[in-house]
Amino acid sequence: MQLRFLGTSAGMPTRTRHVSALALTFEGQRRWILIDCGEGTQYQLMHTPLSVARLDAVLITHIHGDHCYGLPGLLASASMAGRRAAMTIVGPPAVRDYLEAVKAATGLQLGFELIHVDAATLVNEPLTLTDLAVRATRLSHGVECYAYAFDERHVEASLDTARLAAEGVPPGLIWGQLQRGETVIDDQGRYLCGADYRLSPRTPRRLVVAGDNDTPALLTDICQGADALVHEATYTEAVVKRLGTDNGHSSAARIAAFAERAGPGALILTHFSPRYASRPGGAHHIDEIEHEARAHFTGTLMLAEDLAVYELSRDHTLQRCE
Amino acid sequence: MQLRFLGTSAGMPTRTRHVSALALTFEGQRRWILIDCGEGTQYQLMHTPLSVARLDAVLITHIHGDHCYGLPGLLASASMAGRRAAMTIVGPPAVRDYLEAVKAATGLQLGFELIHVDAATLVNEPLTLTDLAVRATRLSHGVECYAYAFDERHVEASLDTARLAAEGVPPGLIWGQLQRGETVIDDQGRYLCGADYRLSPRTPRRLVVAGDNDTPALLTDICQGADALVHEATYTEAVVKRLGTDNGHSSAARIAAFAERAGPGALILTHFSPRYASRPGGAHHIDEIEHEARAHFTGTLMLAEDLAVYELSRDHTLQRCE
């Protein structure tokens, strides 16, 4: 399961960070999922192997412009490139209203159907996308805003190859039959029962990707059993204090302290205020976010970068791979 | 007068071309004008010395997405960056409807006023922007679409310094008074009349920037006396014939042949179909556009590139300077 960040800036872009967008891909699947679609997302995609022809669904966390202003252009380009397969759009009802308003005002006609799904329905009833079950949780951000949880639906059973070797069952067709749980007779006339050679399936992976949110505790339930949480850390506490408001956002300290309690092994921070520069010389440096978060979170901590790719492995560890 | 292309692709972007946007700047002016604002324009601006704080007006040629989907994000970022000065938005009434629909649907609040001007009013009554008189002409493109003509309003008179030297009038305050047309008495008691020493002012520059258009002849009047015409050349004739339609656009041959008759000394082509690659290996190469245009136009011909800067000098010549 790979997380490819296309934009990691809050509100407005910088020279090194586009506004919010995150692509989710899966082993062996060419179909993929996009979470948020800030302006310029279709430009960032040209620097990846991903194609809008294979884009299964777009999930919008909330209707603020830095999370959705790239959607009309992305859809228009997909249509011009010949896409005819329907696309699922998940989000608050405002997303549908926004797209319909833009289509009407600008005469945009798409060569494919948009299947709108109200994110609120995913709070109680998971939606299946590619091979994932997707649930939603309402957050706190002024406008209707959601976190999405992605659960693997099918986890393959692995085969106890050590036992097979010890019992003198050579690799071949029989191994596949045993892995599928079948009972077979081998060339020595032995009855072999699949159940005896299948190892317990590993635990399915769970990823949670949150929209903007000033109340991390709202994520407590959805984070149970999660391997990784992607959450905004728009400011440091020092900046929140100086501004006199968090503007509906979380500080690095607040989300890191929550993650430490809630238990995901890995925390990826994103959606940084443009005041935090990636290079020396700015009023603030992105390292301030990292230092503040590390003081509260002892797990695997990543600060997302544009076009960086993070892999959530089957062994539930997260690492950066590009 | 400088033309800085921010996007030169038709319909959808490519790896080397953003969708349409063009910045106009003027000698000695920090205020500037934007013509069209396709998605990603605010990203391109970060690669220029231009600031949205000094953006005087945005002129939209027509409401198609590749010419306006960057506008909400650009306005939002200008507001977040602290802009409070009103901004003029010129275009068909659909532009106002589009912006109001996006603002309503996404809760976008700007910290400055938008002064909407219906482009149709500029057909008969020029609008003054920075130091330019801007007129409009209706084009043919399915939706309401315009070309904008930019005329210098003030042209400085130059002084006949050779005559002043020959008559023994030394450089000094008197030269400035004479240049302003005043009558003065010099230290030899001579009456000197400004009108006798001012050379005829140079002809004001005129630039025409057209939106998408399948009927170049509609530009005949507005191109009279123009130094340069910026016009789309979406396809070559070979591609138009194969598609069986021009989709409301002009071929390189058609606009070049028009320009040859209509008389602008320079023609800048832009808005190229993504099928024309800038590097070898594509189905078509951008050189095909150039070859076709050169066969019909004998003046200065340029094919716009993203982030390229073209200077229209006081001597009415056009050249690429970046």
TrEMBL record, chains A, B:
Residues forming the catalytic site: 66 (proton acceptor)
Keyword NADP among record annotations: no
Catalytic activity: Endonucleolytic cleavage of RNA, removing extra 3' nucleotides from tRNA precursor, generating 3' termini of tRNAs. A 3'-hydroxy group is left at the tRNA terminus and a 5'-phosphoryl group is left at the trailer molecule
Any one GO molecular-function label of the UniProt entry: zinc ion binding
SUPFAM superfamilies: Metallo-hydrolase/oxidoreductase (SSF56281)
Keyword flag Nuclease: yes
Cofactor: Zn(2+)
Cited Pfam families: Anti-Pycsar_Apyc1 (PF23023)
Domain called Metallo-beta-lactamase: residue spans: 20-212
Binding site for Zn(2+) 1: 62, 64, 141, 212
Residues reported to bind Zn(2+) 2: 66-67, 212, 271
Enzyme class: hydrolase
Gene3D superfamilies per record: Ribonuclease Z/Hydroxyacylglutathione hydrolase-like (3.60.15.10)
EC number(s) from the headed UniProt entry: 3.1.26.11
Family: Belongs to the RNase Z family.
Subunit structure: Homodimer.
Name of the featured protein: Ribonuclease Z
Source organism per UniProt: Kushneria indalinina DSM 14324
Gene it is expressed from: rnz
